[in-house]
Amino acid sequence: MNSESRKVLVLGAGVAGLTTALEIARCGIRVEVIEKKPFTGGHAVQFSCKADDACVSCGACIAEDTLKAARSHPLIRMTSNSRLAGISRSSRLVAAIQYGPQYIAAEKCTRCGLCIQECPQPGAISPGFSGSDPPFISEACLYVTNQSCTRCQDICPSAAINLQHRSERQQLETDAIVIATGFDPFNPIDKPYGYGRFSDVVTSLDLERMLKRQGAVRRPSDGAFPRKIAFVQCVGSRDVKCGHPWCSQVCCASALRTALLINKKQPGTQISFFYIDIQTFGSNFQSTYRELPRQIDLVRAIPGDITASEDNRLRLIFFDTRSRRQLEETYDLVVLSVGIQPGRDAAALAEWFHLDLAETGFFPRQEQKQPNAGSGIFVAGTACGPMNIQETAAHAARTAWNTVRFLNGDDNA
Amino acid sequence: MAESPPPIDLNRLSPGRLKSRMFSQDTCMACGLCAGSCPVAGVDGFDPRKLVRMASLGLMDELVEARWPWICTMCAKCGHVCPRDINIADLVRSIRSLRARDEVPGILHKGLTTALKTGNNLGIPAEDFVFILEDVAEEIAAEPGFEDFTVSIDQSGSNILTTIHNKLVNTHTEDLKHWWKIFHAAGESWTVPSENWEGCSWGYFTGDDEALKIMAGRICGHMHRLEAKNLLWCE
Amino acid sequence: MPEPVLIIGNGTCAATLAGTLLQAGAGVILVYAAADPDKAMKLRPGPNLEILGDTTVRGCSGTAGSFKIRLQNNQGLIDRTVSAIVVAEEHRYQPNYSLYGITPARSVLSLTKFKQLLSSDPPGDGKLNKAKQIVFLSGLLLESHPVSSETVMRLCLRLQNDYGIQTVVLTGNLKVAANGLENLHRQSQKAGAVYVKFTNGGPRIRQSNGSVTVDFEDEISGQRFRLTPDLTVVDEMILPSARLAHLAEVLKIDAGPEGYLQTDNVRRTGLLTNRKGILAAGPARRICSEKDSFADAEAAALAVRQLTSAFAVAAAGHAVIDPEKCIRCLTCYRLCPHGAVIFNSPRPAVVSESCENCGLCVSECPRRAIAATGSEMLNRAEAPGPVDVADDIFEPKVTALCCGRSAVPAWQQSVMESHRQPRQLSVVTVPCGAGVSMDMIYRAFLQGADGVMILTCHQGNCHSEQGCRHASREAARVRDFFEQTGFETERLFFDTIAANMSAGFSEKIARFAATIRKLGPSRLRTR
Structure pTM? Predict the structure, then answer.
């Protein structure tokens, strides 16, 4: 088979999917990427930069870079709002794909933002999370609801909008499939922390989005700058009870980098960090760690309960090891560092592809070689378990290499 | 200044010690959730995490001799929240069970002996018990809307059989009224046994499995004898 | 047939890499300074594999696809041409004896020594049969790393299960942030290993006649304990190979502060260094486990393959030196962050495949002999979007010199998110902060700007490593000049930003516009 006709299907357009796609395309092989969400870039593209003046190596901007490169690579075709609907095998793999409506053509859109400014229906057109991604049209759109408005289509200077576009199912022949469907964040609704009940209890992902969108941290309840913030680590990680006997590996780094940034951007904010063991991150962790106690109140205990105080603040109850007493401390904002858990589609995908999931519910992390390489099905990134952005990119490169070797037939399987 | 005791020699720990223990205390990672959740942590030095830690280090004698493990109310919230799934309440019971019975603190063992002998922790005779219940029932019947209220004792075929905590017929009779009134309002068929009605099992509380078995057996006996459908065991 | 790949390394990572590349059909030259006796390479020279032991790298010229390498061993100098270079030198381990105030003895071993003891035949050399208790000192005073804690946990599990030895781990923050470690921790606990964690302070460690006594207060129970272990195992600092410093110099690679051949710069994804065609793998780029080494071998094979691919899209454009203007001062040759300027004869030239188009040579060339092609160096865009400020006050013209990798996407997203922009904002795209020159700043003022803001990537985040520093230096020089001439220095402002800081962009530019609004129109405006 010559290289022009070979094709790889990548499921998921997060850091893993985009990196795998890019690495494979750079070897001269066509790649089709489908993403079920209306935007591409995954979780990471929603994360904020943690730098004040010097980069702290959180890696969030990698998602932007990768997305930009993948969007402009001639051998990559990328569609959002689309999902795998079935899989069969002839001489090649045949994927049934349900393509959602592509109202805004990514290749034509110049990201001028005019459609968003002119849209009469608030929230109908969302700007997305990255300048490399086109805006996306939601269910709230007047045309989608009752065909009563075509303003954006009429005014788009580059004729990138087609509101008449419809969802369609297509068969796609492919030679290999890479599962890069990522992870789901743990939902802390059942933990005794009042998430979903108290609006000032937020998850680490809520905080990321808030920082990115607003450039500051505010209390969701009243928009005020919080004077005291608590970070609670390991919510849904290192937790046998909720079936997560693993460390999510990214939360200590993310929470501490964010805390240090808040300290710089919103001076005077008091921050407490409730933890079990602080995990190493970054090549300069030793010096970062030494500086931490000067800026953050490090408390080696996980709080038991969060209740509301009389003045609408949040009361944390925890056991203080030094005084051997249970203490109460009141905060304006509580951030739950939620863990990484397997994606909700993992089990269904595993069944479709006849793959066995690991005991953890993630796809197995092949250490030396993908054992099912002979079948042309590969897995990349956090679908295999927790990893940070840089590691995800590295893992995706490996998967790309295995895929390319498989396509070249020089896999000695 | 008091002289601090010499350090404990950890070399006495035997690596085989775990295999003989049924508890998972050794997997504690000291996150502190148990102590942060415990309603009595810090009271007289009680700390569920410390208890788990000492058990894990094999300091059972020290734990058995200490007074503070008896502060625990056995609510078991600690084990419920424990991310390593350690059954801390069970561990507390085991530690308590290792104490000689005559060294069980307070009235617990005396009350248990009384309960085994008389059917309740206070030794209230059956006729006094029935008198108190009927007295409370009369008070309820005096309230508007409850004119036809009566207490149901030893009624066969009831939907609910309830036990009684001894303090409800001693100092807290008002508390009986609340749920009796709810039964009445709901039109529920319910009953109370006239003997061996004690709901507060100090056999459970002091780690005395034999006593716990006897007292639980009595309640089960009521269920069979009175052909009740559901048991409401109020601690 | 492309030239072979040069692998520099002495252990598992280099050997795995060689194996992977050979399988993929590449030729390999494997060079090492001294063989690591622990890690038998199990490779035999063949038609595609040349192995050169006791050999050092003396020189490197050329660029990706065709590096000229000069090697030296007891045979003398050897010259080779290679398509790519992968450095894969193993870690070196420095035991923390002195950190804990003890010295090595029969009963005090480093983690590496202890592993050797356990893998000797028979295991333990008799020492383990008599031992009842072994204490591990791990991550006290200095923070540990999952690679190290994994070793400790595995040893505990094995000692408990196979030898019935009581293990005690004294540590600070227990590191479990790697695949399977939390589970391993639990397994070792179930097997009986005891972990003592310290938050403030640590154990008191004493040594007499070789043997160690440890006194400590357990934070959880508040009890004081004493340990007199049969063996004490001391953890190690995992450090980059001492040879990396020399290699960084010869290969012109930016080493990180710890000495690895990758800085902490997130732009160096995978195995990339600042030079195209030169890769850092496994323990040459960060602390890594053996598994990570295997992974890097595959990533390296992929990167090598992409070197010859037409679809490995390079930077849009590159610098070109005008031979008429060049005076051969070699400023460009010395400064190029990517080693893309070669000087063979008679004058320097830019190798387009290696050039990242950062523009540093363009802005630094004293003769203005270098131009960037292929990209629009000055792509001026009037910003659309909702605008700030009422009509009745002075509305300044603001020019933003924006790095295309960070400030431009941040601005674009900021417009999309309907953040307010100054009414008269023009955005000038530069491929990198390294391309910002004093010329460019003056030109912006002369073309009518009331204020000029320079926005580059954050320090340590520049794709070309030096863009942020360079642009900030150029700005400082212009401000100095402004100060001397009595022109308002506030009209020029340097700041840093990232591509995902859309809200940050509008915040920074609004603050700057407000400053300029107060200052009024610039005197440099040509009327």
Answer: 0.92
Question: H or E stretch including A315?
Answer: strand A314-320
Cβ separation of B83 and A241 shorter than 8 Å?
yes
Answer whether B5 sits within 8 Å of C160, measured CB to CB. Answer: no
pLDDT, tens only, C226-258: 999 999 999 999 999 999 999 999 999 999 989
Q: What is the pLDDT of residue C88?
A: 95
Coil, strand or helix: which one is C384?
A: coil
Contact: C302, A68; criterion CB under 8 Å: no
d(CA A70, CA A17): 10
SS (H, E, C) A106-126: CCCCCCCCHHHHHCCCCCCEE
Chains meeting C at 3+ CB pairs closer than 8 A?
Answer: A, B
User: Which residues of chain C, if any, have pLDDT below 70?
Assistant: 1, 35-41, 124-125, 313-315, 374-392, 526-527
Q: By the 8 A CB rule, do C183 and A245 touch?
A: yes
- Coil, helix or strand at residue B189: coil
Residue C198 sits at the chain A interface (C-beta within 8 Å): no
Q: In angstroms, rounded to a whole number, what is the distance separating the alpha carbons of residues A277 and C176? A: 8
Taking only residues 93 to 122 of chain B, the set having a beta carbon closer than 8 angstroms to any beta carbon of chain A reads none
Tell me how close the Cα of C93 comes to any Cα of chain B, in angstroms. Answer: 29
Among chain A residues, CA nearest to C140: A286
For tokens 């006649």, the residue is C209
Q: Are strands A228-235 and A333-338 parallel, antiparallel or unpaired?
A: parallel
* Residue B147 near chain A (CB below 8 Å): no
**Contact flag A131-C409 (C-beta cutoff 8 Å):** yes
Q: Is the dihedral of CA A212, A215, A217, A223 positive or negative?
A: negative
This model of the complex carries an ipTM of 0.93
Residue B104 DSSP SS3: coil
User: Using the beta-carbon criterion (under 8 Å), do C194 and B57 form an inter-chain contact?
Assistant: yes
Q: Is the per-residue pLDDT at A258 higher than 60?
A: yes
Residue A184: count other Cβ atoms within 10 Å of its Cβ. 17
Mapped onto helix, strand or coil, the DSSP state of residue B229 is: coil
Element (H, E) at B223: helix B209-225
d(CA B89, CA B73): 9
C-beta separation of C243 from C33 below 8 A: yes
Query: d(Cα C445, Cα C82) in Å, to the nearest integer?
Result: 48
Kindly give, in sequence order, each residue whose CB lies less than 8 Å from that of residue C111, ignoring residues fewer than 6 positions away: C93, C95, C148, C151, C152, C233, C234, C235, C236
DSSP assignment string, B134-166: HHHHHHHHTSTT-TT----BS-TT-SEEE-B-G
Chain C neighbors of A131, CB-CB under 8 A: 408-413, 416, 499, 502
Q: Is any Cβ of chain A less than 8 angstroms from the Cβ of C488?
A: no
> Could you tell me which of C5, C6, C8 has the C-alpha nearest to residue C283?
C8
Q: Beta strand C28-31 with C5-8: parallel, antiparallel or unpaired?
A: parallel
Q: Does C158 touch chain B (CB under 8 A)?
A: no
Contact assignment for C299 to A324 by CB distance below 8 Å: no
Tokens at C386, concatenated: 């909702």
Backbone angles phi, psi at B18, to 5 degrees: -70, -35
From chain A, pick out residues whose CB is under 8 angstroms from the CB of C386. Answer: 117
Give residue-wise pLDDT tens across range C31-58: 988 765 555 567 888 899 999 988 999 9
CA A380 to chain centre: 14
C-alpha distances out from residue A266 to A208, A251, A313, C506, Å: 16, 21, 19, 18
| Amino acid identity for residue A210 in this structure | M
CB contact under 8 A, A61 and C499: yes
Check A116 against C418: CB less than 8 A apart.
Answer: yes
The pair of three-digit structure tokens given for residue A6, joined into one six-digit string: 């070979």
